[in-house]
Amino acid sequence: MSVAVTPALNRQSFAVYALFLLNGAAFASWASRLPDIRSALGLSLAVVPRQVGYAVCG
Q1: Domain membership flag for residue 46
Q2: What predicted TM-score, i.e. pTM, was given to this entire model?
Q3: What's phi and psi for 43, nearest 5 deg?
Q4: What parts of the sequence cross the membrane (predicted)?
Q5: Mean pLDDT taken over the chain
Q6: Which phi and psi angles does 3 have, rounded to 5°?
Q7: Total domain count, the chain
Q8: Domain of 27?
Q9: Are 51 and 43 in contact (CB under 8 A)?
Q10: Residues sharing a CB contact under 8 Å with residue 52, sequence separation 6 or more, in sequence order
Q11: What are the residues whose beta carbons fall under 8 Å from the beta carbon of 43, sequence distance 6 or more?
């Protein structure tokens, strides 16, 4: 049993790969900035996880 790979399927697969790549890059740049943001806001390590949770959850 073989699966025919059409150009449309190939484009859709590429779009999914591109979205995962962009999401990963966005998360990596955000996560790497957390220590700078924490120090700029003067937050302690005990407060940061709670504040990030509030920001993510609304």
Answers
A1: yes
A2: 0.55
A3: -95, 150
A4: 14-31
A5: 82
A6: -110, 125
A7: 1
A8: 7-57
A9: yes
A10: 34
A11: 51
